[in-house]
Design goal:
about 30% helix, 3-stranded mixed β-sheet, 4-stranded mixed β-sheet, CBS-domain, 4 helices, alpha/beta, about 150 residues, 7 strands
Length: about 150
């Protein structure tokens, strides 16, 4: 039995967007302590980082914090206030997509990322699209009889 899936290739990815106002993020000037506390509070393993003007800078992960602790030898939370998020962020990790990205491109991207940051044409952070939301969309496209 052949199973066909209809996915609207012309559909805009914005319907999957979790807007910036609903996403926890860090500003690039935050201290490592602030970053750790925010990630712990929300239970995240990675979190977007933006500049004061809203430009997406990158994403920082638990691993980035861990490697900083190992490399710096500074283990107290109090001393983490002396370091900035910019001290640990990795360039090019967790790249963004634009609002005109196709569903196929988005699907390929979420295969490698738990969430994909979305930016506008000025590189301003608009929000994220999670792997879970993309999987739910494709699952619903399979139809109601899909397990």
């Amino acid at each position: 039995m052949e199973c066909s899936v209809y996915v609207d290739k012309g559909k805009n990815i914005l319907f999957l967007l979790t807007p910036k106002a609903m996403v926890a993020f860090l500003y690039d000037h935050c201290s490592l302590r602030q970053g750790l506390e925010k990630m712990r509070f929300h239970g995240y393993t990675a979190i977007p980082v933006i500049s004061k003007d809203g430009t997406y800078i990158g994403t920082v992960s638990e691993g980035d914090f861990l490697w900083h602790l190992v490399d710096s030898g500074v283990y107290t939370m109090k001393l983490q206030e002396e370091y900035s998020i910019l001290d640990i962020i990795r360039s090019g990790w967790n790249p963004t997509i634009k609002i005109d990205t196709t569903m196929d491109e988005l699907l390929l991207r979420v295969m490698d990322q738990n969430f994909v940051p979305v930016v506008d044409d000025r590189e301003k952070f608009m929000g994220i699209i999670t792997r879970k939301d993309v999987i739910k969309y494709y699952h619903s496209a399979l139809g109601p009889n899909t397990p």
